[in-house]
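Consider the tokenized backbone below.
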């Protein structure tokens, strides 16, 4: 990639940071993070080298699935602020050069959404066909239930409607019927609404489920080409804003996932999360062997033209290991989450990396150095930059969604609420509580990830200068990153294996296989000629 392209292909050199407004910073002491608070904390992100903020759902919600069950797509959850606060946040982000993308959750709504309430109330409702109704349960395959902790089927009978409705997730999340043109129009309207308020695109939730029409009676006829619909969505987005992106959640094997880029044309999702490589990375860490990572990178299909993979260590959900074999998954469980309470859905872990590796900072740095040097756009989950742990007392995936830890103390600098009981969620216990793990302390510790990049933020003066990192020039261009390239011997093993993977064709590298082995030299700032 030429340096002159880094501006218009901005997502290729981006560093994405995912956060939930609710758990980031509380500005008014009610215990719940809010947009006004987030606006006050943007400097932290800029100083880390983040270029894109991904907002988890911030819309009004029935809150059964932490905001992924929306009751109104066109405004802000009142607990988080107002639309006015949102616009001020967008303005503040833009003035710091930050782009913002938001979760687009349109596979389903909350059952409390007025559309569903109307739909179930009468066959004559104008919203009846906005959802998927059948007299008898529709088709269902093993594995279709995404949340086996609480559901046994993807079809539930609604007493009022007298029919079964489709829900790929919880029963309180009825699936929208995308075979209905009115639904597709509404989805476009939602996209258009938030684009007008300045977004640079969306993280698209549950894409394969959104396009799935097999349970819809007559659906196959109405929507014969799901990928055509995805192309339409992308084209619509492009008309509204030429450089906006769709970053899709498509947790499928590589060859199937690739079709969501639009195959060779690259006219569907701009980026896809690389779930297979993430899972291989954990298998590699468990085995202390780079082999699985190497195999994943070799198997990873090349992306069409302007598209790109997004790489990550951890996201906000369970750390899914569903693409590993049963035996491989068990290896990772044994190494990183042996207790049943650390596991979830039989396929994933509900821990963050530092606790999984017993607090070994070298292994944590290794994982992030590796992730930062992989081909793709690094995507971080808030708190990773300071090595936050989880709170296993919280149910399911909430364990990793605890409030951001800004400084020591009962409230962790997150809120001025009267006591910890007033916080939206409790912090992890020692040795991962805010007293041990927090932003301020790390800014003062020259050995930490944070201090290497942070300058002056919210009144704290760091004692080390900003640190400019770089990525392999064959994979993307240089950028400023938070993590040191100081690596252990294990890291060198890992990286020497990954470098034998030829970089993408378009990288302009003269001799891809001649890249030097250790991370420290892979991450050179020299541009290849
Ligand atoms: C996606 C989200 C997850 C959510 C689900 C249903 O998988 O990442 O958090 O529960 O979709 O919306
Ligand atoms: Ca608040």
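A designed sequence for it:
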């Amino acid at each position: 990639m030429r340096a002159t392209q880094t501006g218009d292909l901005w997502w290729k050199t981006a560093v994405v940071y995912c956060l939930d407004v609710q758990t980031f910073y509380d500005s008014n002491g009610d215990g719940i993070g809010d947009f006004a608070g987030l606006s006050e904390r943007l400097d932290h992100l800029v100083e880390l080298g983040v270029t894109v903020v991904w907002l988890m759902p911030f819309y009004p919600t029935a809150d059964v699935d932490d905001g992924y069950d929306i009751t109104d797509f066109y405004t802000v959850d009142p607990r988080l602020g107002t639309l006015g606060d949102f616009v001020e946040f967008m303005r503040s982000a833009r003035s710091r050069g930050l782009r913002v993308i938001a979760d687009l959750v349109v596979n389903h709504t909350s059952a409390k959404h007025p559309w569903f309430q109307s739909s179930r109330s009468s066959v004559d409702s104008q919203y009846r066909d906005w959802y998927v109704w059948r007299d008898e349960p529709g088709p269902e395959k093993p594995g279709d239930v995404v949340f086996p902790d609480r559901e046994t089927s993807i079809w539930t009978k609604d007493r009022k409607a007298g029919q079964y409705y489709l829900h790929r997730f919880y029963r309180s999340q009825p699936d929208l019927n995308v075979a209905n043109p009115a639904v597709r129009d509404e989805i476009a309207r939602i996209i258009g609404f938030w684009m007008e308020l300045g977004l640079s695109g969306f993280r698209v939730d549950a894409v394969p489920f959104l396009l799935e029409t097999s349970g819809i009676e007559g659906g196959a006829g109405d929507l014969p080409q799901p990928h055509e619909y995805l192309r339409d969505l992308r084209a619509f987005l492009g008309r509204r804003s030429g450089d906006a992106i769709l970053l899709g959640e498509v947790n499928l094997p590589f060859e199937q996932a690739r079709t969501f880029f639009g195959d060779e044309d690259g006219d569907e999702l701009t980026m896809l999360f690389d779930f297979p490589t993430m899972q291989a990375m954990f298998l590699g860490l468990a085995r202390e062997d780079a082999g699985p990572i190497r195999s994943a990178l070799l198997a990873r299909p090349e992306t069409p033209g302007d598209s790109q993979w997004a790489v990550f260590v951890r996201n906000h959900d369970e750390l899914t290991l569903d693409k590993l074999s049963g035996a491989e998954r068990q290896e990772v469980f044994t190494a990183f989450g042996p207790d049943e309470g650390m596991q979830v859905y039989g396929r994933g872990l509900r821990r963050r990396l530092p606790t999984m590796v017993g607090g070994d900072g070298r292994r944590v740095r290794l994982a992030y150095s590796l992730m930062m040097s992989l081909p793709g756009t690094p995507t971080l989950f808030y708190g990773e930059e300071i090595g936050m742990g989880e709170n296993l007392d919280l149910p399911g995936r909430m364990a990793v969604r605890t409030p951001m830890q800004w400084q020591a103390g009962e409230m962790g600098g997150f809120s001025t609420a009267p006591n910890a009981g007033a916080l939206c969620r409790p912090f992890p216990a020692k040795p991962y509580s805010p007293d041990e793990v927090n932003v301020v302390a790390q800014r003062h510790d020259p050995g930490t990830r944070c201090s290497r990049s942070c300058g002056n933020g919210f009144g704290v003066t760091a004692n080390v200068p900003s640190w400019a990192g770089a990525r392999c020039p064959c994979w993307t261009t240089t950028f400023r990153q938070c993590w040191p390239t100081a690596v252990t011997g294990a890291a060198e093993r890992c990286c020497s294996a990954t470098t034998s993977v030829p970089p993408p064709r378009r990288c302009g590298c003269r001799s891809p296989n001649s890249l030097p082995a250790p991370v420290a030299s892979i991450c050179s700032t020299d541009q290849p000629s």
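The first strand starts at residue 16 and ends at 19.
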